[in-house]
Amino acid sequence: MNVIVKNPDQFNSGDTVICLYESQKFETKIIKKQDNNLYLFVPWFKSLQDSERRRAARVSYIVDGQVQFGTKIERVRLIDLSIKGIGFSSENKLMNTELHMISFMLEDVMNHFTIRIQNAQKVDDLYRYGGSFVGVSVKDLFYVRRYILNSQLDKLSTLAI
């Protein structure tokens, strides 16, 4: 979303902004500032009005990875990621009751996160999972945050043309 403001000096990239939509409040961040324009990422999908909406905006990220639980390792395909969690698919069913370690490459760096599976769906011949990160430091999320921000900025730049 692009918002035009009178006093742009009062705002900085990364600031949190409170938005109001049909009497519902939600937070978003300023991802870019240019002249009097503030660019906000607003997850504008139907479930925005639902109480069960995602806790953070997800961006597409397709790459192979692996999930480890106990001594078992399962190959998975990442679908999307956010600063709160990750979406992935697997050919085999995983245990929902355990914490899992997911590993994947992002920006030429191998990332390892502990996740808790929040939901699972059978889609065709695959299992589709949504997992939330558990006990992750801001430092460990550096590459994820940078990837998400760059993806959002890329989308903005293609829309502005």
Give the helix/strand class: mainly beta
CATH architecture label name of the largest domain = Beta Barrel
Tally of DSSP helical segments: 1
Q: Indicate the proportion of strand residues.
A: over 45%
* CATH 4th-level superfamily of the largest domain: predicted glycosyltransferase like domains
> How would you describe the shape?
elongated
Q: What is the typical, i.e. mean, pLDDT?
A: 84
Largest sheet: 6 strands, antiparallel, barrel
Tally of strands: 10
- Head-to-tail CA distance between termini: 15 Å
> Percent of residues in helical segments?
10-25%
Compact overview of the structure:
With 161 residues, the chain is mainly beta. 14% of the residues are buried. Helices cover 12% and strands 51% of the residues.
Description:
This protein is mainly β. It is elongated, with a radius of gyration of 18 Å. It has one helix at residues 142-160; strands at residues 2-4, 16-21, 24-34, 37-40, 59-69, 72-81, 85-90, 99-106, 109-123, 126-133. Strand 3 (24-34) and strand 4 (37-40) form a beta hairpin. It folds into two domains: 1-45, no CATH class; 59-133, Thrombin, subunit H (Beta Barrel), CATH 2.40.10. A six-stranded antiparallel barrel has the order 5-6-7-10-9-8. The longest helix has 19 residues, at 142-160. The protein has one helix and ten strands. The chain starts with a strand and ends with a helix. 12% of the residues lie in helices and 51% in strands.
